[in-house]
């Protein structure tokens, strides 16, 4: 451990003073509140406001996390796309339980989602794939995500090769590229508060007991 106070992070802290979250601010279902917060993150010009940490576990129970961009959301769930040979896709094939985290630090906010991931249909994937810039489409062909490669030059050479191949036509959808929809089981909203008295509310799916299908509880910080 360093004795240099400049590198001592134990006392690194700040007060969260951007406001609170009260029960009166909540919506009966979580999606409208999520949409409101996401819009505010976009309006605040945060870097990558749709970026979310995606957590999965392997067959040994080892957690893995990575940042992925949210591409769509509605009442059916939250959607992201990936190489189906990637580590996260393989792990979801064995265990569909998933966690998402939206870290909107600049607004003193975070949203945590727990749910089940299901594969998107080929039609849904095709619709999104064809909307991507052509270079991004080619990039999907180039990268066998999570596989080992000897050097970056391997990727760059393959990209140039495929760019020439598809220069005069459409880029077809790779059979190994797809997406997932996360069906939400719970969604927690965290708003930083002064003196570490943060506001936390969790929505949990409970269709048997409430009119909206969601139970809402305040959690201690």
UniProtKB/TrEMBL annotation:
UniProt: FMN binding residues: 66-71, 81-82, 87-88, 110, 145-146, 190, 200
Superkingdom as given in the UniProt entry: Bacteria
HAMAP family in the record: PdxH
Any single biological process term in GO: pyridoxine biosynthetic process
Gene this protein is translated from: pdxH
Pyridoxine 5'-phosphate oxidase dimerisation C-terminal domain mapped to chain residues: 177-221
Broad EC category: oxidoreductase
This protein's name: Pyridoxine/pyridoxamine 5'-phosphate oxidase
Species this chain originates from: Rahnella aquatilis (strain ATCC 33071 / DSM 4594 / JCM 1683 / NBRC 105701 / NCIMB 13365 / CIP 78.65)
Family from the record: Belongs to the pyridoxamine 5'-phosphate oxidase family.
GO MF annotation terms: FMN binding; pyridoxamine phosphate oxidase activity
Cofactor section: FMN
Keywords: Flavoprotein, FMN, Oxidoreductase, Pyridoxine biosynthesis
Record EC number: 1.4.3.5
Ranges where the Pyridoxamine 5'-phosphate oxidase N-terminal domain occurs: 38-164
Binding-site residues, substrate: 13-16, 71, 128, 132, 136, 196-198
Role of this protein: Catalyzes the oxidation of either pyridoxine 5'-phosphate (PNP) or pyridoxamine 5'-phosphate (PMP) into pyridoxal 5'-phosphate (PLP).
One Pfam family from the record: PNP_phzG_C
UniProt cofactor note: Binds 1 FMN per subunit.
Quaternary structure and interacting proteins, as annotated: Homodimer.
Reaction(s) this enzyme catalyzes, per UniProt: pyridoxamine 5'-phosphate + O2 + H2O = pyridoxal 5'-phosphate + H2O2 + NH4(+); pyridoxine 5'-phosphate + O2 = pyridoxal 5'-phosphate + H2O2
This protein's record includes keyword Flavoprotein: yes
InterPro entries: Pyridox_Oxase, Pyridox_Oxase_CS, Pyridox_Oxase_N, Pyridoxamine_oxidase_dimer_C, Split_barrel_FMN-bd
NCBIfam families referenced in this protein's UniProt entry, alphabetically: pdxH, PRK05679.1
């Amino acid at each position: 451990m360093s004795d240099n106070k400049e590198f001592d992070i134990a006392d690194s802290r700040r007060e969260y003073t951007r406001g609170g979250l009260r029960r009166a601010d909540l919506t009966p279902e979580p999606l409208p509140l999520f949409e409101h917060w996401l819009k505010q993150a976009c309006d605040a010009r945060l870097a990558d406001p749709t970026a979310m940490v995606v957590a999965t576990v392997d067959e040994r129970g080892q957690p893995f996390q990575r940042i992925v961009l949210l591409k769509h959301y509605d009442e059916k769930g939250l959607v992201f796309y990936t190489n189906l040979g990637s580590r996260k896709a393989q792990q979801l094939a064995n265990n569909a339980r998933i966690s998402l985290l939206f870290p909107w630090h600049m607004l003193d906010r975070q949203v945590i989602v727990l749910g089940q991931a299901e594969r998107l249909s080929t039609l849904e994937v095709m619709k999104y794939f064809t909307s991507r810039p052509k270079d991004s489409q080619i990039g999907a062909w180039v990268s066998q995500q999570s596989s080992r490669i000897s050097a970056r030059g391997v990727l760059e050479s393959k990209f140039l090769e495929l760019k020439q191949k598809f220069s005069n036509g459409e880029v077809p959808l790779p059979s190994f590229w797809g997406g997932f929809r996360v069906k939400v089981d719970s969604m927690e909203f965290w708003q930083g508060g002064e003196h570490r008295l943060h506001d936390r509310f969790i929505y949990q799916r409970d269709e048997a007991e409430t009119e909206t299908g969601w139970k809402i509880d305040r959690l201690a910080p």
